[in-house]
Amino acid sequence: MPTGPNAVRVTERPLLEIFHLKKHYPITQGLLKRTVGYVKAVDDVSLTLYEGQTLGLVGESGSGKTTLAHSVMRGIDPTAGSVIFHDQERGAVDVASADRATLRHVRRNMQMVFQDPFSSLNPRMTVLDIIAEPLEVNAIATGKEAQERVAELLQLVGLRPEYMRRYPHAFSGGQRQRIVVARALALNPRLVLMDEPTSALDVSIQAQTLNLLKELQDRLHLSYLFISHDLGVVEHVSDVVAVMYVGRVVEIAPTHKLYQQPKHPYTEALLSSIPKPDPTRKKQRIAITGEIPNPANPPTGCHFHPRCPYAQALCSREAPPLREITPGQFAACHFSEDLNLKGVNDF
Ligand code: SF4
Questions:
Q1: pLDDT in tens, 89-126
Q2: HSE on the CB side for 196, CA within 13 Å?
Q3: Which atom of ligand 1 is nearest to the CA of 309?
Q4: Nearest atom, ligand 1, residue 264 CA
């Protein structure tokens, strides 16, 4: 079986392998709803996540990150490609084509944490009911047993078990996100997909939440697919980072390499926009002009060419393939080897 273009392996065992995943939404017109085009939200993405690893997925909003995560969970059906989850009991399962029973089983091992802890908790349920729900639905524990497991989970995320009879409104944003994490961990998953898990939180609370996620990863041997538009946050938690642009991965590399020696101009521009803590340091931000293109009508050739300061004639004609530029570092740019791009510390 082929493997995706990742180089850092916390273990040698892949947990999730995404092959040529596509999610295209048809654009229809007229009474007969004739298909006149497609929105290519995810367009031929291949990635591998190893056990115990955090794979960070970055890009501007509209780059396809969230659609990719929902396709991995089968919250939406992918148009093409496969999503292989290596299940301890059932072996390699293709989530993209699995039947309902298999999907139900695999989903216990794959959980998702969303951005907004305010809307992802039912305000009419107590914390006990919220965290115990997946245990009861999956017939794992009820009554006293479920209550004991909820107490254990609350302690695990740094909350006091006596809070379990309270409702979500009694908690701060950071505490609510801990409740969301406790619920996601209720079924002992191996993979947690996090979609902007800290972006609704204050900066000081963000740091605490990120530290908690790292602690939990070490203790429970979790793997994370961590989605964020914030490159500072992604650097803090990820072993490997993939940069997405208009539905495609344009660069993927071990975190240190990608931040110090990027090989794609889009990565360089994103790195230049990370805020610096030192106000005396002069910042030379690379301004990317224009908006991220509409995935229904992306530019020809390299999708980044209208915004790229290094674009040449070839760029609008031919789409660059994702290829290995340095060991373990892949980029989709015709001129990666010739460009001397700046790393995060050069701005
Ligand atoms: Fe820029 Fe051309 Fe490289 Fe695309 S292929 S990133 S337009 S230099």
A1: 999 999 999 999 999 999 999 999 987 777 788 999 99
A2: 14
A3: 1
A4: 6
